[in-house]
Amino acid sequence: MNIVIAGGTGFVGQHLTEHFTSKGDHVSILTRHPENHEDRENVRYVGWLKEEYTPERELQNVDAIINLAGASLAGGRWTPERKKLIRQSRIDATNGVLSLIENLDKTPDVLVNGSAVGFYGTSVYKSFTENTEEPGNGFLASVTKDWEATASQAKLKGVRTVYARFGLILGTEGVLPLMKLPYKYFVGGRLGNGEQWMSWVHIDDVVGAIDEAIHNSSIENALNVTAPTPKRNEDFLRTLGEVLERPHWCHVPGVFISKTLGEMSTLVLNGQAVYPQKLKAHDYQFHYSDVHGALHSILKK
């Protein structure tokens, strides 16, 4: 297959590239700075989102596009300027993908567009599946709603479109290295009241779910990319301490986190219990459905 990845130089994109090239697929990574990268076997870097670049001239017979591009949620306090960047970077990149689709010589079969479980808002008591169609409240719900609405325009171009609603992705990069730091110094413990849900997923299952979305033509619209066993913060972090063989005892008060991080503290203090109903309905076999096994596979290599 010929697969195009926007945002392919990041944590998830690198794993996807390794996965698809190991199967013999050809991967083209869209980047604003192709000069900073060297092409290699089955992988090339294609310039986009600048006037001087015309990626459609370099891409032929594209079968699938994966769009992961967007500014990090954890790149600093959510000032008005930062929030604008988080939203607009996703919209602009997705519009860039739509423009690319419009100008390609062949219409791709599928677009897998990034999204997040933040679409559902936050709740201590409710649980969510893809059957929950209305977005929740708050900044992240608003961003993901607009992000998905923009990507949905690909349907008008005859492209099967999937919104990959990612949970908390566990791997050697991303948020897990930060989460284990307190345990390294023997001060690990729950954050806030510990009741907030953490809908986690192992990086191997992120790759597996996207592969499934590309190859299974009956998957479209929302797709929850989470493990089937969300955990409350207290339970998740206690398990992390067990895997690291470190004590779990130091409670960090929610008011301290709120004052330190501002509105961004919602990433830490609030969550949602999200279940991958659609993946299970399509008999996707999870590599890691147990959080202890998932953490052990990453931290005890």
TrEMBL record:
Domain NAD-dependent epimerase/dehydratase: 3-216
Pfam families, per database record: DUF1731 (PF08338), Epimerase (PF01370)
DUF1731 domain: residues covered: 252-297
Top-level taxon: Bacteria
Homology family: Belongs to the NAD(P)-dependent epimerase/dehydratase family. SDR39U1 subfamily.
Xref: PANTHER family: EPIMERASE FAMILY PROTEIN SDR39U1, SUGAR NUCLEOTIDE EPIMERASE RELATED
Name listed for the protein in its UniProt record: TIGR01777 family protein
Organism lineage: Bacteria, Bacillati, Bacillota, Bacilli, Bacillales
